[in-house]
Amino acid sequence: MLAHPDGSLSWSQSLRPVRVRQGDSWRGVDLTLARRADGVVAPVAAPVDLRLSGGGTSSPLVVLGRDGREIGLGWAGALPEPVLSGPTATYPNVLPDVDLVVTVDVTGFSQVLVVKSREAAKNPAIRSLVFPVTTRNSTLGTEPGEGRGQLRNMPTTTRAAGEPDGLVVRDAEGRTVFSGDATRMWDSTGPEGGRAAGPSDANREAVMGLAVSERSVTVTPDAALLDSPGTTYPVYVDPEFWHGGKNHHVVVQDGQQAGTLNYDRTSFPLNDLKSGYHLENGAFRSRAFVEMNTDFVRGRKIHGAVLRANVIHSNSCAGAIPTVVGLTSPIDPHISWNRQPVWQYDMGSSNVTNNQSYCPSNGWAEFDATRAAADSAQQGWTNVTLGLRGDEGRVDGWRRFGFDLVLVIRYNSYPHQPSQLLTRVDSLNVGCVTGAARPYSSDARPRLSAFFGDDDGSLLNAKFEWTELSTGATGHTGAGEFPPRTVRDVEVPAGAMRDGGIYSWRVQAGDGELLSPWSGTCEVAIDTTKPGLPSVTPVQVPQYEGLPATLTLGANGTPDVVRYVYTTDAVDPTPIGSPSVNANGLGGDATIRVTAQQGETTVRVRSVDRANNPGEIFEFKFKARDKASVVSEWRLDRALDDAAAQRRPLSYAGTGAAAWTPGYVGDALAMNPATRDHAVTAQPAVDTGQSFAVSAWVKLSRGDGWYTVASQEGSRVGSFFLQYRPDTGRWTFRAPLSDVDGADSDAVPSTGPALLNTWTHLAGVYDEPAKKLRLYVNGVLQGETPHTGWNAGGPFLLGAAKWSGARVDFFPGAIDNVQVWNRVVFASEAAAMNNIAVPRAAYALNEGTGTTAKDSVTGGSATLRGDVGWSTSDYRTAKLSGHPSGWISGPRPDIRAGQSYTVSAWVRANALDASARTAVSFGDPKFSPFLLGYHPGQQRWELFSVNAAGTASWSAVSIATAAPNTWVHLTGVYDAVAREIRLYVNGQLSNKQTGVEPWGGGADGLSIGAGQWNSQPTGRWNGLLDDVRVYAGVVDEPAIRDFADPTLRS
């Protein structure tokens, strides 16, 4: 392939293969025979698979293969090691004084048995030659072959007229794969005697008998030629096979060869293409025909074509007569001088000469073949047949051409008809449609796009054309200079299309010379008018928050409304991304269900028309009365009772007995998979086809399997699973799509890994109106996913799941305080459940004597260290001097690392100087995770927080300046859900800081009157401390005010 500056290409095709693909590269044909490592002899690079015997009996004499089909000829007996010379392998003395010569060609092979003496010809094996045959994916048969009924230089023939003299190998569909001949023999009479390539004019030639069976080819040499006193030895016996390929040729000759069939023959004397007048092989006139495949240029624009032919011999030099090339009818295996193709018309001619004795040259001639190439491209022919014809009355026009001729066609391909037409409407690509289904665009400048192709890789341009259906007015715009095999789009120019217009459009591609066919026609309607306000009519408003309301949305007189978009989360609805419901017809109504939110619910609604124009927002507000309480609540404080009004108790259903362990609040149900520990209700806890929620405190003891906290049984599977999954190591709220074995599921995973042996709060929510699953872990929303629920009518399961009809996934660890609702649970509620205030330590510090202080929550005690003592000046309190050795140390309260806490104390500082003072903290080898006390730089009270890595800190300081010798109540809160710290002074919120990262550490326990910073003790308190309290979770503000009420101090 050759590219030209004008964008056209030249495509070349040889009559016979000239290159071979080996691996990922191409190389020239090389028929030199060589021995392979496996002992087989093969050409270096051949277009067909040719394998010759390396001697012995292990492989056939020669195998010819292509595309998985093979024909092999063997030899009856062991073969000697061949002598290799270029493309020829000679097997000497396969019979006494008889050589076997195999010559390979680009399309096949010839096999000549050389009978070197009259004595050798008397061998009975010569009189009937049997060649074993092997085939693969093919069958061997006979057909008319060369048709050599006229025997040259022989008075008689031993062949009967009409006998088949050709060989053919066909595939399973009956198509010819290989052709062959096994009927020629000749002697060495004449000046060119001794040639193994083929007979000359002087040779005595005969045909042989042929018989074919499934496993052999039997050739019977002509006894008259073998026994004739006039026969000159050696005598040559020649069976051969060849593969025709895509292109074919034939030479036809008159005289003695007028009936000879030479289709695709390449062996001597037909080892070239002959044209003109010259005595050869008993013939005077010769013509050559070549069939060239032109399917590649079908439908292309032809700029020109030449047939390049190598003149290997011309009879004359000066005064030579040109050879003409013309188009003929097709050739086939039965073409002869007596049955020639029809000559259609002449084209080019050439008078190139090449006579090695008198006027040697490179011999290459060019014949104009443009007309034939153009006709072939226009009419869709798969090939053309070109004839070479010289002057047939004078030898000055005689030429022989090599088989290496080439047809070169210069062409340009028409761009492909544009396809994949799309109209881009409001960020959506709409396929090519017409009529009532046409898209409506809210923009009078829609984008039109199509896919463009061109076989030549030429740069393309495009013309987009549109017509208004009602007026016939047209317009167009273009896109140019872009590569093929790409999508190109254009924006309709401003003012070209009008509101209310309906347009058809199409597109055509060009390459600067040729144009593609027009594409099909698409349509688009322009509608830039927005719909009016919708109407909202309540059908049912729920009594409780979290339950669904039913509303009817109406078009309010706008005729082309197709759908409505709405929101309930204070965000304006948009045509793309917001919940949407289709109208029950053009301009019709729609019914929606929305979940009643906390407080007042505002439903924002917009009408959307066919062009996706959104109307103005209409707000509809309603308010549910209150929150519906839980429908089931199992506190699991050493009992399986249901504390909710419906009273659905659990029953232990394992193989052991119910066991208890300390819970997050009170006690918890201990779960052991070994005894299949789980509990069930007698009836369903909730309709899982409607909105519902389930929550629990869980402590997972291992992560090596699927473990389920809660579920509700269907017939074969549960309708939901609040569970741990081992492949991700995360919590998940999973809901099968249906009640069948192996059902697919929708699932919401946690954003982080599940923590083992750590109390974790889980809440799974199904919002039926929104068709969403949500998962909360420790009060924080992990995500949501679409889901359509179904009702599982079986019992509620705690600590197990139903899958494929069996209970599985028994939970290891502990479960506490399980709650179920028949409504949506909101984010604030999930946060509140996680932040429930649970007392973990309380030191009144009113002992007055001794070196310990009692924890009224756990019954444990803290130790007074250094010079810490007691005071009774105002209240009975602890007294600290600020000395580095003086502080109170207690066990670490049960607060989950990184989770919410509340810590408080009454404090009185003797002096507030340049030193930091800490009232309460957690001890740690490096950094206290929090410090509640005094900030000297700002001279204010402070809650100071450090992240788990010790790389960032946050501070909430009081508004008012701290005063010494005055009792002050301090409360510090870390809200893990809100990610903020809050400081309360005397029961009132004084300051807060947001964006606070989770804390960690605190392994050294509770520190009263001291802190730790950068691995050093810090902030020793100088003054009095009283009533220290620590809570897991967030204590609410009324309780904090009670803590700070001096009238309630003891």
From TrEMBL:
Domain LamG-like jellyroll fold: 690-828, 899-1038
Keyword entries, A-Z: Disulfide bond, Lectin, Signal
Gene3D superfamilies cross-referenced by the UniProt entry: 2.60.120.200
GO BP: immune response
Pfam families: Laminin_G_3
InterPro entries for the chain: ConA-like_dom_sf, LamG-like, PTX3
Name the record gives this protein: Concanavalin A-like lectin/glucanase superfamily protein
Native organism: Herbihabitans rhizosphaerae
